[in-house]
Specification:
mainly alpha, single chain, 60 residues, PA3496-like
């Protein structure tokens, strides 16, 4: 195998791995954070509306 060809293949594989690793977990993490924030915001709004409300009874 030509040395230059091997280097190009190796660089392509490294770039694929970096792209796959960096993009997906970050987006997923922020989606999870936003979901938690939305849940807390909803709980606060419901508690402001009804002080006697039991948060454990709410299904999301």
């Amino acid at each position: 195998m030509d040395d230059m060809h091997f280097v190009e293949l190796l660089e392509n594989e490294i770039n694929k791995i970096r792209a796959a690793r960096s993009s997906k977990p970050g987006k997923r993490m922020w989606r999870e954070i936003e979901a938690i924030r939305d849940k807390k915001r909803l709980e606060k709004e419901l508690m402001d509306m009804d002080v006697c409300l039991d948060i454990d009874d709410i299904q999301y």
